[in-house]
Amino acid sequence: MSTNEHIITRIAPSPTGFFHMGTLRTALFCYLYARKHDGKYLLRIEDTDKIRSKKEFEDDILESLKWLGIEHDAFFRQSEHLSEHKIYLQKLIDEDKAYISREESKENAGEMREVIRFRNKSETVTFHDLILGDVTVDTSDLGDFVIAKDFDTPLYNFAVVVDDCNANITHVIRGQDHVPNTPRQILLYKALDKPVPAFAHIPLILAPDKQKLSKRKHGESVAVSTYRKNGYLPEALINFMALIGWNPGTEQEIFSLKGLVEAFTLERVQKSPGVFNLDKLNWINKEHMKLLPIEEQEKRVFEFLPESVTNLPHFNTEKMRTLVPNIIERIEKFGDVRTMGDGGELTFFFETPTLVRDSLVFKGSTADEGKTHLLEAQAILTNLGESDWTIETIKSAIMAYADTLPKRGPALHPLRYALSGLERSPDPFTIANAIGKTETLHRIQNALTILA
RNA sequence: GGCUCUAUCGUCUAACGGUUAGGACACGGCCUUUUCAAGGCUGUAAUCCGGGUUCGAUUCCCGGUAGAGUCACCA
Known about the structure:
alpha/beta
């Protein structure tokens, strides 16, 4: 069926820090392009920097990718290829394309050491980037760049080229911050007598300050784990990141990973960098939350439910479950439910609220009026049978009364406040239904006592 | 500073020479069974500047300007 089975892409993160949003974006684009063309997508951990590479960071990369659902077809560690690097290093030296240079160490001033430098013939390199078009660079100012500290310690530009050759990578898709590395690498491909892969440098994602996303300047907000902890959906994060620097050419904005694979083309990738916009991410996340089956919504809400809610006197799992659709409407990410205890939007469902007299009285109305309406509500609800205790019946019974009034507010506000104890809350019918008949009447009685 | 790249509403973007410059987020207004949320409708808001090319430029070319990336014995 496919004519592009030869396509192989890779993501090559280094385990020297937590999994970065930029890495997520690059991984995503590599994955989308490979899947779209029935090719392969590889994961290679770039751990040649023995000192800075840490196992915990590698674990974070693996876990994050798994959480996101970006699955690779093969996995390598660059350190596993050291013998290959050594062979090619020797080959280059044998052919006089590289040489051992004895010079003062840059790491430890004063110390003399040997490094391996590439013999740069200072030619002009032009490559056709699938996104940027033709890029021409004069490599003379690169000089004889260092490709290895010694035979056992190849440096990035060299190791990447050897590994990409060995893995038969056909398309190098990476961030535009790698554009300056490309001429260097092309020189190495040629020196090694290997085919040069296609390059596609995707636009960078900038922080709201329009600077490249960096841990130092932007802190936790660049770590994928932060979004996971805060209850964002992986599919939402992916959807959002795909839409920075790429568009489907239609007005569709909400995509599943599968949908992105179908819609993705490198032709519609932007050349210019895009700013990370949290508002938009929140909106996309909400759209994905609404798409989730109810059981999934429940599962996630419970996952983030704080003890300040579960420890409440009348807390009960079944009741909580019925509240989920309501909660989904009121949050933009699941982590938001963590702040719904402690007098927040969830507390009054499981605890009789403390009422303040002034708040009970509707503005423009009087205490006596409020009392009259509450008495009426009390009578109406008392007459409602337990089996009739649904949002719909409660609502129609109360509204039938409220509609006989010139304005509904004076009747509805005291009732809502009596039940919630909050200036802002869901409607009284939803609350009454959730807390049950007995508790509803109890709270109305509390309000009447205060007004007496 | 050198090199490379980029330039449409505040932000993400559509337009591949001819549009009242479209959509989304955010913001404002209105509506909807009190408030909040959700939902519906609606409004404000953009082609960086200057030259060309062309009957006609957001679109093509050149020059400015601005922004970004990068300049390791890190990746």
